[in-house]
Design brief:
This protein is of the alpha/beta class and 235 residues long. Helix content is 34%, strand content 21%. The radius of gyration is 17 Å and the shape is globular.
Length: 235
């Protein structure tokens, strides 16, 4: 699907070249979102993150229908923790640290049930999955190479959490020259005040890190373009 669409956004409209835009879904993992998982053991209200699921399911469906490149990320570490620096490993209470046993296997360890993406947003077989050891999706991953190979210049960013992995990835992408639209109802935080401030920071000063827009305007644009060119998927 080719075509440029102008999306109402903050701080102002943005023209999206859909043939060169990708949907990035950050860390929608069981360890973060499910009751009993790592996020809840740290004292967080996982219900705050679960609000993101329904609108993101809709956005993902529209992106798939349009043929848009979809990239999923998962934060986690090797079983021997060789890629987890002490500054990260030592945070939290001793019984609630990365690598310790949790309700869904060892916490944030690759290959464990809790490390994987929730069922509602499970990646399709042809979708890219990036395993990242840090908060940003570009650090120590091949995400940059994947996007370059597909000619991507603009990103729709979604997932959790707004002020941590979403913000870090958006800042990394901005420094690398990507135009980023953070989908406001498809990102979430355990802390509503952090979510609100995180979105405000992205669009501040004329869009210092990018734009913010709700999913409904993006879904409408993708659906309209897909209907207009049903035989021309994005490549």
């Amino acid at each position: 699907m080719d075509g440029t669409v102008t999306i109402p956004a903050r701080p102002g409209p943005i023209a999206l070249d859909l043939a060169h835009t990708a949907l990035v879904i950050i860390d929608m993992q069981r360890d973060f979102l499910l009751p009993g998982g790592f996020g809840e053991t740290l004292g967080n209200d996982v219900g705050q993150l679960q609000r993101v699921v329904e609108p993101l399911v809709g956005l993902l469906a529209a992106a798939r229908e349009s043929g848009m490149l979809v990239v999923h990320t998962r934060e986690g570490h090797l079983p021997d923790l060789s890629d987890c620096p002490p500054a990260k490993l030592n945070r939290g209470a001793p019984s609630k640290r990365i690598g310790d046993p949790g309700a869904f296997g060892r916490i944030l360890i690759r290959g464990e049930y809790g490390h994987d993406i929730i069922d509602e947003l499970a990646p399709a077989d042809d979708e890219v999955v990036i395993d990242k050891p840090g908060k940003g999706a570009f650090h120590a991953t091949d995400l940059g190479d994947v996007l370059a190979a597909h000619g991507i210049t603009q990103l729709l960013i979604s997932g959790v959490t707004t002020e941590v992995c979403v913000h870090t990835t958006t800042r990394e992408a901005n420094d690398r020259g990507y135009e980023c639209v953070v989908v406001s109802d498809c990102v979430g935080s355990y802390f509503p005040e952090f979510h609100r401030a995180g979105l405000e920071m992205i669009a501040a000063q004329g869009g210092i890190f990018g734009w913010t827009a709700p999913s409904d305007v993006l879904i409408a644009a993708l659906t309209e373009q897909a209907a207009a060119s049903p035989t021309a998927p994005i490549s």
